């Protein structure tokens, strides 16, 4: 009985400590987990399979708060590997979403600049480094990519993705 009580107290402490620490997710210098990508349908598509990549689009982002290129044309159904290079000296990110979704997330980032997250449509890239996203655009429409680091989105670090229907 005494051992059960000690074990229960220890277990409760571990659970409470984990809850206080919050969810474990990656951002910035932290490594992304090696867990399989959770595929969740979004308005702008779904996480893609590397074997289905039809082309690679290289995008650079810099401290001038701009992406190069700033406009991308994609065909509905295409699976793209985005190779995103940070040419600046600041942390930048490449986040795919709708205009409304990115604006909402950017507002949250202003309130909570240290907010941590790790989604398959986001790449957080340290200065001088590159990151990849594999994404399937299975819905036509106009979407955007943006850097949602506090102040970057507000400075105009946004690009447009046009997905043409087949």
Main sheet: strand order: 1-8-5-2-3
CATH class: Mainly Beta
Gyration radius from CA atoms, angstroms: 19 Å
Overall SS class: alpha+beta
What characteristic shape results from the CA principal axes?
globular
The quaternary state of the protein chains shown equals single chain
The total number of structural domains is 1
User: In which range does the helix fraction lie?
Assistant: 10-25%
* Tally of separate helices: 2
Strand content: 25-35%
CATH fold group: Immunoglobulin-like
Mean pLDDT: 83
Query: SSE string, helix = H, strand = E?
Result: HEEEEEEHEEEE
CATH homologous superfamily grouping: Cupredoxins -  blue copper proteins
Distance between the termini: 68 Å
Description:
The protein is α+β, with helices and mostly antiparallel strands and 166 residues long. It has one domain: Cupredoxins -  blue copper proteins (Immunoglobulin-like, Sandwich), CATH 2.60.40.420. Helices cover 20% and strands 33% of the residues. A five-stranded mixed beta sheet has the order 1-8-5-2-3, with no helix packed on it. The protein starts with a helix and ends with a strand. 27% of the residues are buried.
Concise summary:
By secondary structure, the protein is α+β, with helices and mostly antiparallel strands.
Write the layout of secondary structure elements.
Layout: H1 2-21, E1 46-47, E2 55-61, E3 67-68, E4 71-75, E5 79-86, E6 92-97, H2 99-111, E7 122-125, E8 130-136, E9 141-146, E10 158-164
Parallel strand pairs: 2-5, 4-10
Antiparallel strand pairs: 1-8, 2-3, 5-8, 6-7, 6-9, 9-10
